[in-house]
Amino acid sequence: MIGSEAQNQQLASIKAATLIESLPWLQQFHDKVVVVKFGGNAMVDAELQRAFCEDMAYLRWVGIKPVVVHGGGPQISAALKEKGIQSEFKGGLRVTTKETIGIVRDVLRNQISADLASMIAEAGGDPVVLSGEDSFLFRAEKTYLDTDAGQVDIGFVGEVTSVNPRVVLDALNAGKIPVISTVAPGADGELYNVNADLAAAAAAVAFGAAKLMVLTDVAGLYSDWPNLDSLVSEITVAELEQMLPSLESGMIPKMQACLQAVIGGVPRAHVIDGRTPHSILLEIFTQTGVGTLVVPN
Question: ∠ CA(166), CA(62), CA(65), 5° rounding?
């Protein structure tokens, strides 16, 4: 019994120390916007999803303003397969037809956003589901795939060209947690499927975010992948610009997002391992942090 009491006291002391360690970060980020790009393994693992949503609710309750931006590659592919439509990719980008853009929109908003919002609410947060279509939150422009043979048309795929932050800032000021899916209208009246990493970066700049965090399925950026000893804990914009062309293809849009955010004025951008439960809280509230931090030169 004595041993058990001593263990309980030791555990309580550890918890207290953790709370005290978080104080400077609570002060630094109080009332600040933090944009989190949700994706990777965390998107398809139920327990990681739940931990992520608990993190979002926690941030809001301690006075930080989280904004969730997400894509949904695996879920979109599954929905297309159910309808007998083969997923096609070129240069790592999903070829999106007139038929499939509606499915993309539906899966992102009515499945993924809705599920995240439900779990955030269960965790005590007050979510609001948005997409790039709402109040022209995002405007997009059609993009083409550049190849050695010239530009290739990949359908209704675009990139964010402008952000109207008002609907999100109003939601944040009302105490809500925006959950944003990444389809966006173009000036031509068409709807486009946009890269969620780069949309999150554009959003972070437009919202005046103090931090952008991008969840991945690796521990961070490696300078010599797959050498696990080459994990980079911190990198400047200039260093990242030099390294970017040599990166593994799946990591390029994530690091481009961090690069664009910091160049656009976001003080800090991180790539974080979404396979670790509560990785968002570990990054924000601990001295060591996790993942790779991108900072200005």
Answer: 15
